[in-house]
Each structure stands twice: as C-alpha cells, then as structure tokens.
C-alpha cells in the first residue's frame, strides 16, 4: 500500500474482527501464520464485526471502536493506537477490552481491503461538483498486504488484551 501525503486524500481500511472456529488459548496471541502448524494457512474471514478506519491527509487518527456483539449486553472496545506511517506502510497496535457481559473466545483481526478516495478536480484545478453541488469524490481500490490475520486470544468479561503490533503494506 503506497501512501503519499500529497496524493492520498483519504484511505479507508475495511477490517473484520471474528471468532476463530477452533478456539484459542489466551497465551496464543499474534500473527496466525506463526501460530499454526507449518504448511497450514489461516482460513479466509467469512464473517465477523466489520469496522472502517479512515486515514486522511490531515493525519492518522488513533481510532477506537465500540463493537456490538449480537445477544450481548455491552460492547467490545477495539483500539488501534498508536497508528503511524513507516515508509509506505501503516503500523499500529490493536488492543481489546471486553465489556460485553460474556466471555469471548478465539478473537481474530483481519484487515481486508483499502480504498483511496479524493475530491475530483478539473484541468484548472477547481473542484468538480456533483448534481447536488457537493464536491465529487472519486475512489479506487488499493492493493495491500496484511501478511497474516492476528489471533487475539480469549477475553473474559472485563478482560483486556495485550497489545499486538500489526503492519499493513
């Protein structure tokens, strides 16, 4: 994922937090490709709690999300902080706090896609307007590399995860 502060107006990362089907031990935390037996790969994400992180030319936010678990009374707090650019890569740490009222087992984080968007400009450098007079946005998908989903382990109600570093290239 190539990020240039001059060219990129905003970058949206779509991600998903899912439960790993085979479960997990709280001590097993980190990139799944390092935790699974040699020669095996993590299965693709097939569902989960989606969230979107928007990165703009004004900076990279330290984003937190409150994710609602169906059937649970509270939420799962997800923090992706600190976030920063390292060359052309986005680097951060993920942390979870379980406030759902139930234990959560085998939590996994996948970063699935990135989309670059900007306001369109004409040949004179003026913003192009849509039919309603608003600036017209254009977008395109970006190729990213997220080497492995992150296994975040199990969290009892009220539990907090250790921070796990991630890299999106």
**What does the average pLDDT come to?**
80
Give the beta-strand count. Answer: 11
Alpha carbon gap, first and last residue: 5 Å
| Helix proportion | under 10%
- Uncertain regions spanning at least 5 consecutive residues: 1-12, 19-26
Biggest beta sheet summary: 6 strands, antiparallel
Count of alpha/pi helices = 1
Return Rg in Å. 18 Å
Walk me through the structure.
With 169 residues, the chain is mainly beta. The strands form two sheets. Strands 1, 2, 3, 8, 9 and 10 form a six-stranded antiparallel beta sheet that branches. Residues 1-12 and 19-26 have low confidence and may be disordered. The chain is globular, with a radius of gyration of 18 Å. Strand 6 (84-86) and strand 7 (89-99) form a beta hairpin. The protein has one helix at 32-35, and strands at residues 10-19, 30-31, 49-56, 63-68, 75-80, 84-86, 89-99, 104-119, 137-142, 150-155, 164-168.
